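USER: Please consider what follows.
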Amino acid sequence: MVTAADCGIVVNPLGLAGQVESGVAWGLSLALGGEVTYENGAIQQSNYRDYAVLRYRDMPEVEVHTVDSDRPPSGFGEQPVPPVAPAVANAIFAATGKRVRRLPIRPADLA
């Protein structure tokens, strides 16, 4: 996955890369497996053992680019998470012509 970050002067490039990579991991986890289910009005997932989080072995390579800037440094945290699911959905559309309209994305939804 190729990413770009525009967050002013980057003081700690490795820290930024770690934030982006972990954001991509959470975004992919949500897009591909993140689902909260209910039974009798109670949430069934109580911890990470019940909620699928992408494992390192399942991660794609993440390429992190930064925008050259003379703006002051700014914080960078969860910004990488929201665009991941739309990026995956657009990639699926580009490859198959099928639009994804629900999350999590499941192979059965692409048939």
In short: The helical segments are 13-32, 84-96. The mean pLDDT is 91.
